[in-house]
Amino acid sequence: MFKNPGKIIKDYVQFLFWLLVVVVAVVGVLCILSDSILYGICIIVFGVLSAYVFCLLLYAFGDLVESNAETKANTEEILNILETLVDETEA
After folding, report:
1. Average pLDDT, the chain
2. pLDDT value at residue 88
3. Which residue, among 2, 6, 10, 13, has the nearest Cα to 69 in the 3D structure?
4. Which H, E and C letters describe the chain, residue by residue?
5. Is 0.85 surpassed by the pTM of this model?
6. What span, in angstroms and rounded, lies between the C-alpha atoms of 39 and 67?
7. Is pLDDT of 1 > 70?
8. How far apart are CA 20 and CA 14, in angstroms?
9. pLDDT tens per residue across span 44-78
10. Rg (CA), the chain
11. Fewest 10 Å CB contacts: which of 43, 48, 50, 91?
């Protein structure tokens, strides 16, 4: 569960985005069918745009977590190589 949190965050955000798009589309269509055409169109347009911006920020956070984990792994690998070289020069 906690093995790769960055990828998990990104996967959940993609699911959340499509869920929000479907909900906004349904609400917008219901408004259009109840004779509020302009209101329904505004809900669809601004709802999808706000869902995109919100999910983009969360996706960027997931990407940041993922790249931080990669940087940590690379740094640990470099540290191990340097420790090996120091041990060889001291021997």
Report:
1. 93
2. 83
3. 6
4. CCCCHHHHHHHHHHHHHHHHHHHHHHHHHHHHHCCCHHHHHHHHHHHHHHHHHHHHHHHHHHHHHHHHHHHHHHHHHHHHHHHHHHHHHHC
5. no
6. 41
7. no
8. 10
9. 999 999 999 999 999 999 999 999 989 998 999 99
10. 23
11. 91
